[in-house]
From TrEMBL:
Gene from which the chain derives: aroQ
Binding, substrate: N73, H79, D86, L100, S101, R110
GO biological processes: amino acid biosynthetic process; aromatic amino acid family biosynthetic process; chorismate biosynthetic process; quinate catabolic process
UniProt xrefs under NCBIfam families: aroQ (TIGR01088), PRK05395.1-2 (NF003805), PRK05395.1-3 (NF003806), PRK05395.1-4 (NF003807)
Name of this chain's protein: 3-dehydroquinate dehydratase
Pathway: Metabolic intermediate biosynthesis; chorismate biosynthesis; chorismate from D-erythrose 4-phosphate and phosphoenolpyruvate: step 3/7
């Protein structure tokens, strides 16, 4: 199986950004862990990061032809982007929503995910392991 991992806005700054919330491991290290875990599972993983909503939507559209599933951390877009939600619905690929932090233990505006209803499922609150658990889930998905 081929899997695309998408990091949305501000995730390029993980490690530097609010380390008390997001941890002190940088995005390169997280990406190394994703690739290593993917390899263990026999999944071929590509990783994409963008701070732009449209770029994430374009990538989701292109993924339709190439991948068997997607791991998506849409960052703050999670909470209000109907455009990303519609893109997920449009491509009909299983998308696993992930977050480093426990969004339900934080600001009220983070308690809502407008993408959750169109995702296969979601994993949040486990730091980089949220991504690794999402790979486990996609591997098992029929
Ligand atoms: C996040 C949670 C979002 O609320 C926030 O806007 C982010 C990161 C997470 O991974 O915990 O940028 O998606």
């Amino acid at each position: 199986k081929k899997v695309l991992v998408i990091h949305g806005p501000n995730l390029n700054l993980v490690g530097v950004r609010e380390p008390n919330i997001y941890g002190s491991e940088g995005i390169e290290y997280i990406n190394d862990c994703i690739l290593a875990h993917g390899k263990e599972l026999g999944l071929e993983c590509d990783i994409f990061q963008s701070n732009q909503e449209g770029a994430i939507i374009d990538k989701l559209h292109q993924a339709r032809e190439i991948y068997d599933g997607i791991v998506l951390n849409a960052g703050a877009y999670t909470h209000y982007s109907y455009a990303i939600r519609d893109a997920i619905s449009a491509i009909r690929l299983p998308v696993v929503e992930v977050h480093l932090s426990n969004i339900h233990a934080r600001d009220a505006f983070r308690h809502t995910s407008v993408i959750a209803p169109v995702c296969a499922g979601g994993i949040y609150g486990f730091g980089k392991n949220s991504y690794l658990l999402a790979l486990d889930a996609l591997k098992e998905l029929k």
